[in-house]
Amino acid sequence: MDFSGAVDSFLQDTTARNLSTKTWKRYHDDLTDLMEFLTRRSLTSVEQVTTDHLRAYLANLQTRANGRHVDQHLSPYTVEGMYRSVKTFFNFCCAERHIAENPMARIRRPKLPERDVPRLSENQVAAVLDAAEKTLMPQRNLCLLMLLVDSGLRRGEALGLGLTDLDLEIGKVHVFGKGRKMRWVPLGCASSQALRDWLAQRAPVADPHLFVTDEGTPLHADGVRSLFMRLQQRVGLPRLYPHLMRHTFAQLYLERVQDVKSLQQILGHSRSSTTLDLYVRYPFDVLKRLHAQGSPVDAIKKARQSSVAPEGTPSKGPPS
């Protein structure tokens, strides 16, 4: 089967399964890149593609220059994402019997470096919130920031909220999340109050979106990006972006609750491994405190000391 025809069939299946536009575009761009690589080697049909061809492609990605930073190679996470796109495509081709054997079956996933997920400290979060109170739309901006850092919403999830998605009596928001999945996300008392303050100031416009501009139109990603750039400059942080607030929420939540399952549900992760891999990594001071609570040797020593009578005479019991 012609390679471009197989890609079109795969993308049509993606649309039929109601996957997001973002997912469709990622598959389209990644497979277009692969097709260009294969075409330069006179490979035009999926039946011609072998395991060696695909290994050569992945090796090429590992040495390819980064489009944004020409002095750097593609990010390992970018390469791994393209690997997943290619693997999904050839799994589809095999299932649809476009090919008799899957050339990706023996190609192992590229190794990823250990990811150091950045977070803000509580003092840095407080400084950002203070700076938001001095912006042109303080109630809206403070509400947005508190919502991001108090519930871990993605930027798109927050901007997609409608007025009917709020339940401030109970303290929760109805989120239309990644992969078109719906979930309820709890709110803290302070975030609920910030939402009430914003709703009291929000102009009575017809647009149903929760977050709107001063002109009454929906707030878009570019507007949020501009807000975060201004806040970063005012606070003097090396970096500040919406997803950093999600990472920060996860870290601060885990330090207090230490329950990965509830965090997974709040964040909307399909697999607990995603939550574990990204967020269960404590700074040393937290590790030290948790270790002090769970040290086996300290617990054994304490138990043995408590078994000694006040006069210093060991209590009766089996010999050690």
Tell me about the largest β-sheet. Answer: 3 strands, antiparallel
Q: Return the domain count.
A: 2
Mean pLDDT: 89
Morphology call: globular
Number of strands: 3
Detailed description of the structure:
The chain has 320 residues and is mainly α. It folds into 2 domains: 3-95, DNA polymerase, domain 1; 122-279, Orthogonal Bundle (hpI Integrase, Chain A), CATH 1.10.443. It contains 14 helices and 3 strands. The chain has helices at residues 3-16, 21-39, 51-63, 76-95, 122-132, 138-151, 155-159, 189-201, 221-235, 242-257, 260-267, 272-279, 284-294, 296-306; strands spanning 166-167, 172-176, 182-186. The chain has a 3-stranded antiparallel sheet. Helix 1 packs antiparallel against helix 2, helix 5 (122-132) packs antiparallel against helix 6 (138-151) and helix 6 crosses helix 10. The longest helix is centred in the first third of the chain and has 20 residues, at 76-95. It is globular and about 75 Å long.
Describe this protein with a few key phrases.
single chain; 320 residues; mainly alpha; DNA polymerase, domain 1; hpI Integrase, Chain A; 3-stranded antiparallel beta sheet; 3 strands; 4% strand
Report a brief summary of the structure:
This protein is mainly α and 320 residues long. Helices cover 56% and strands 4% of the residues.
